[in-house]
Every structure is written in structure tokens, then in C-alpha cells.
């Protein structure tokens, strides 16, 4: 250990250095305190042994100045005092000295003090190393936690559906922009209208989370699934003994449980007329009473309602309160059906295909142009939900690098029914019909007979839910002939 030794008495200085050298240490001698102070700022000495009585700067002042310098504040300082000068020794300890030695110095006492200092410095360095490793561990854990948090948020967005919010069409882009505006105004009630399967809950969750991932609760209530006599308790809660079968201690409702999150009232059109005034008052006053209670309770939760029925028409028929409808219209969003936003079908289909292929360990990576044409031509009465179910079924039943029309044969029959209702479509599809007299009516424009035959084969297979024996019998073919034709279609 390198030891700074400071003493204006050269003889004492040499004697100390000699003993320290014999103990296996590396003493560095200084006769002048100012030189020692300068050296302590340039190099670190784990131990400083200094005499107390020196001209120009005594040992106490040197001790104080060493302890105030960042580079040497960790040095242990041992003061050498005159015999019986206990008051000076105590003062030195109070000012930060590690220990003191009395003159004349005993070599054994010196060795013990130096050994203790060496152990102290070793422990200090070990603690510094542990602290450094701890800081590294904390920093690493912090990075891991931040990464886990981001992964959790990403997973949350995927689970809630926000991660799959597709807005390629102009209508959906405007809708997303409006939803983000609603997110910034939690006091505004929101009404989302749209056909079944258009993604009303997904849009509601986007309003709840915004561009990030909110930690606040998102609580959904299906108004059609809760008996009318229990709905008020479900939404507002109840006091003890409010009704037969209620909890003895009472219970909070969803508005309370949501805190500063969101309450999503799905199928709000099914809400009984008798309960609509209570919902209206709660939305207007941002307060409510528990069932059977007299205490007014305020709430912070955002309220989002969704309906797949024409609420405006219901208002005109007296089936939905006009004042509640207008209150909900402050934040009114309408999701267009999938057939009105063809641009979204392509992106949605590719997203769903990749997701289902990964989940089911299949090899599908893309659609053939003909398969995508099939998806674009279909009307999707069940909207996004039907598209998801269709592709999930196709991936479940088949495998390959590319999804083809053969994998979507169960859609063919529905598409034909759609064409029969709409009349002869454009050149992109072949259509024929049979009159009541049995005469076959062909389209005006030329058509591909092979393509028409393939469509009939696919429709027959779809009609019998993939049972090739029944389909072959229906078409008047052998099962082998049908199988050969399906193979040819898949290779084409």
C-alpha cells in the first residue's frame, strides 16, 4: 500500500519510512505539508500519516484540506500527537482522522494501525466495486424492465385489437383522427355506430388508449346480455339490502370500478327505456346514486356507447330517448362497413393471414392475385369479423406458401348467391341463370368456360362443406375425377 508520510523532522520521517518499508508497504516521504497537499491532489494515497506539529500548516489543517478534496477525501489519515496530548487526538478524530499515534511511536502499534487501514481501504474498494456492479445491474434491470414494459404494451395493443387498427381508406383515416380527438377529451361521451363486426370495440379501445397504452381500466358491459332489473346495479352499484339477493355489504358499480378509465356500453340500443333517463342524468351531471342509496357519487370514467342498430330510426319510432341520443351524438362516430372501404380489405387480409399462419404453424405468406380478387369481390356482410373467421378457417384447413381461391372455396357459394341477386356483373366474373322454362340465359359478354366450370366445382365442394364424395356425386363425377380437377386448379 502506498503511504504518504509527512513530518518536518527528517530523522523521524526516515525512521517511519524504514518501519513501513519493513512491513511491506511503499512509503512516500514529505517534509513540507504544502508539498504533501499538492501531491494528494495529483495521486491517491490510501493512507496518510502526518505529524501534528509542523510549521506553516499543522496536521489538523492538512487533515481538513485533504478531506475536502474529491481526489483524496477517501484517504485514511492518521495523526501523530505528542505524548499525553489527548485533547488534540480527540479533535483530530472529530475532523475525520482514522486514528492517532502518540510519540514516541511504538512499531507494533504502528503496524496494527496500518494493517487496520489496509483492511478498511480493501473493504472500501470492495464496496465501490459492488456498488459499481449494483449500478450496472440496476441499469441493466431498468433496461430490461423498459423493454418488458414496451413488450407488454405492444402485447396489450395486440390483445385489445388496437395493434390491428387498419386505416388505409380515407374514411377510416378520418375516423382514427376523430377517435384520437375523443381520447383527449375524456369528459365527452362517445357513440360509435356501425354494422356487426365492423370493429366498434376496437375503435372504443383506441379512444381509451390513444397513441399509447393506458394503464387505466377498460370495462365493457353488453347491454343486451344483462337483465333490465340488474342493469342499474351493474352500472351504478347498490347499497346493502337494496334488493333480494344483493350483497350484504353492498357493491360498487362499473362506473366506480373504472376509476379514471373507460366504461364501454355495447349494444346500447338494447337498453330499456326505463333506464335511459338514469343514464342520461349520470352523463350530464357526471354523478349517480347507487341503487337503494342516498349518497351522491361523482365519477371520472369516460363513457363510450356502441350500437349496430339505427338509433335515429329508433328515436323516430319512440324506441330510444331523443334526449339521450342527442347527448351521445356530441361524440358521434360511424364506422363504415367493410364493403365501403375496399382499401382496408387488402391490408386487413394480409395482417390476419400472417397472424393466423404464425398461430397455427402454417407456411402461408401471401395471397394469389385470384384469391385477393375473390376477397375484394365479396360483400362481407359480417364485416371484419367475417373476414377474420374466413381466413382463420382457410389457414386451419390448408397450408402452402400462397393462399389460392381453392382455399376459399366455401366463399364461392355465397358469392354466387350475391351475384344472382345483383344481376350480371362486370367482365371480371362469369354469371348465368336459368329461367322458369328451363332455358339457359348466358351473359352478353364472352366468358371463360374453364373458369366457369372451376367456379361450379368449387361451389359444389363448398355446398357439402368439403365432402368431396358428396360433391362428386352432386356433379355427376367420380371422386377421382373431382380430385384430379381440384389438383389441377391448385397448380394453375
Write up this protein:
This protein is elongated. The N and C termini lie far apart (85 Å). It is α/β, with parallel strands linked by helices and 492 residues long. It has 19 helices and 18 strands. The strands form 6 sheets. A 5-stranded parallel beta sheet has the order 2-1-3-4-5, sandwiched between helices. The protein has a 5-stranded parallel beta sheet with strand order 7-10-13-6-14. The chain has a two-stranded antiparallel sheet with strand order 8-9.
Write the layout of secondary structure elements.
Blueprint: E1 2-6, H1 10-22, E2 26-30, H2 33-40, E3 47-51, H3 59-67, E4 76-81, H4 86-94, E5 99-102, H5 107-160, H6 170-183, E6 190-193, H7 200-209, E7 218-222, H8 228-236, E8 237-238, E9 251-252, H9 254-257, E10 262-266, H10 276-285, E11 287-289, E12 296-298, E13 302-307, H11 311-316, H12 322-328, E14 331-334, H13 342-359, E15 366-367, H14 369-377, H15 383-397, E16 402-403, H16 409-422, E17 433-434, E18 440-441, H17 449-463, H18 468-475, H19 479-491
Parallel strand pairs: 1-2, 1-3, 3-4, 4-5, 6-13, 6-14, 7-10, 10-13, 15-16
Antiparallel strand pairs: 8-9, 11-12, 17-18
Helix pairs in contact: 2-3, 6-7, 13-15, 16-17, 17-18, 18-19
Amino acid at each position: 500500500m502506498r503511504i504518504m508520510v509527512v513530518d518536518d523532522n527528517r530523522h523521524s520521517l526516515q525512521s517511519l519510512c524504514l518501519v513501513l518499508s519493513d512491513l511491506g508497504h511503499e512509503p512516500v516521504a514529505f517534509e513540507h505539508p504544502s508539498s504533501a497537499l499538492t501531491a494528494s491532489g495529483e495521486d491517491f494515497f490510501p493512507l496518510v500519516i502526518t505529524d501534528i506539529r509542523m510549521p506553516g500548516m499543522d496536521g489538523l489543517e492538512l487533515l481538513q484540506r485533504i478531506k475536502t478534496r474529491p481526489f483524496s477525501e477517501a484517504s485514511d489519515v492518521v495523526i501523530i500527537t505528542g505524548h499525553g496530548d489527548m485533547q488534540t487526538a480527540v479533535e483530530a478524530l472529530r475532523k475525520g482522522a482514522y486514528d492517532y499515534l502518540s510519540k514516541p511511536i511504538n512499531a507494533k502499534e504502528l503496524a496494527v494501525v496500518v494493517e487496520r487501514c489496509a483492511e478498511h481501504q480493501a473493504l472500501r474498494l470492495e464496496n465501490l466495486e459492488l456498488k459499481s456492479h449494483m449500478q450496472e445491474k440496476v441499469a441493466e434491470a431498468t433496461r430490461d424492465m423498459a423493454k418488458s414494459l414496451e413488450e407488454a404494451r405492444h402485447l396489450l395493443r395486440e390483445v385489445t385489437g388496437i395493434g390491428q387498427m387498419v386505416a388505409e381508406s380515407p374514411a377510416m383515416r378520418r375516423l382514427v383522427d376523430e377517435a384520437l380527438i375523443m381520447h383527449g377529451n375524456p369528459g365527452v361521451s362517445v357513440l360509435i355506430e356501425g354494422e356487426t363486426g365492423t370493429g366498434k370495440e376496437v375503435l372504443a379501445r383506441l379512444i381509451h388508449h390513444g397513441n399509447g397504452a393506458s394503464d387505466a381500466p377498460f370495462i365493457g358491459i353488453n347491454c343486451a346480455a344483462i337483465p333490465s332489473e340488474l342493469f342499474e346495479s351493474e352500472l351504478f352499484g347498490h347499497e346493502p339490502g337494496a334488493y333480494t339477493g344483493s350483497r350484504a355489504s353492498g357493491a360498487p358499480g362499473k362506473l366506480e370500478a373504472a376509476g379514471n378509465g373507460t366504461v364501454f356500453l355495447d349494444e346500447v340500443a338494447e337498453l330499456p327505456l326505463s333506464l335511459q333517463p338514469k343514464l342520461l342524468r349520470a352523463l350530464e351531471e357526471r354523478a349517480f346514486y347507487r341503487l337503494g342509496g342516498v349518497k351522491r357519487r361523482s365519477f371520472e370514467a369516460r363513457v363510450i356507447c356502441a350500437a349496430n342498430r339505427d338509433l335515429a330510426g329508433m328515436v323516430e319510432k319512440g324506441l330510444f330517448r331523443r334526449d339521450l341520443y342527442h347527448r351521445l351524438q356530441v361524440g358521434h362516430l360511424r364506422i363504415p362497413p367493410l364493403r365501403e372501404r375496399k382499401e382496408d380489405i387488402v391490408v386487413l387480409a394480409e395482417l390476419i393471414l400472417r397472424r393466423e399462419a404464425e398461430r397455427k404453424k402454417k407456411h402461408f405468406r401471401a395471397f394469389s392475385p385470384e384469391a385477393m380478387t375473390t376477397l375484394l369481390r365479396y360483400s362481407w356482410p359480417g364485416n371484419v369479423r367475417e373476414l377474420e373467421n374466413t381466413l382463420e378457417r382457410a389457414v386451419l384447413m390448408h397450408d402452402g406458401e400462397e393462399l389460392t381461391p381453392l382455399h376459399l372455396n366455401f366463399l364461392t357459394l355465397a358469392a354466387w348467391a350475391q351475384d344472382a341477386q345483383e344481376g350480371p356483373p362486370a367482365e371480371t366474373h362469369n354469371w348465368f341463370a336459368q329461367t322458369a322454362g328451363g332455358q339457359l340465359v348466358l351473359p352478353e359478354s364472352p366468358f371463360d368456360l374453364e373458369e366457369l366450370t372451376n367456379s361450379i366445382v368449387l361451389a359444389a365442394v363448398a355446398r357439402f362443406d368439403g365432402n368431396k364424395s358428396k360433391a362428386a356425386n352432386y356433379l355427376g363425377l367420380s371422386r377421382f375425377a373431382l380430385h384430379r380437377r381440384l389438383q389441377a386448379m391448385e397448380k394453375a
